[in-house]
């Protein structure tokens, strides 16, 4: 087998498939094209098969290439597992708490309470799993995660316990391209726009599977609106940037900071009785909470309630 590391070969194959061009792939990898070509040909020679189809665009893995790619991936996964196990042994005196969270949600929730919690518990190590809510929920149910941080606790599985911050508002960001836009108005008064009219605008939304999207889809169904969805993203900051950039209207939690800019867009606080969310931390109902677990939950609640005094 090639002496080139499996991770390097994975990078090489990924780059070739991405660009469908050896020259561009080599440039992105900061290596020469002849070297890249030589490495792939050497591996193909050793395996006595073609890994990548080059006779048409875009480049694709051959059936043999798929098997080899899976093999390399399994090597990397096993190596990563080995490092984690060694780390766990090295940190034998540390308690590991595994937390699942949506990346965009973790961006603004975790900094509110984790630093203080870890300051009080220096013997704790946090392992984050940043995935969609459905996966975090499943992993928590299977005891593969200790805690799951999310939003809208009323929708979670009954075999999970949760504590939350209470109800919080959403806001609509209404750019100039929308007929609801009001010139030179920073914040449109709450309750002055019918929610069905908001749903009928050109929309920029979070992807299917996110808690926000589930609520919006429910509203679309209730009001029987066929949405005009211009773009979707898993990142809430991306949809915010697209909305403020005049692509379409978006709906975001009030906890996400939006700078007022009435010449480009309005901010409309949606009445809490029409659309609301809560932030929660959940755990399996058979889990026996330790003092460290309780510290984590209390830090989450304390810092959350201090940060957002909304909807009371």
TrEMBL record:
GO cellular component: cytosol
Superkingdom of the source species: Bacteria
Domain HTH lysR-type: 10-62
GO molecular function, one term: DNA binding
Alphabetized UniProt keyword annotations: DNA-binding, Transcription, Transcription regulation
InterPro entries from the UniProt entry: HTH-type_LysR_regulators, LysR_HTH_N, LysR_subst-bd, WH-like_DNA-bd_sf, WH_DNA-bd_sf
Family: Belongs to the LysR transcriptional regulatory family.
UniProt name for this protein: LysR family transcriptional regulator
Species whose genome carries this gene: Lacrimispora algidixylanolytica
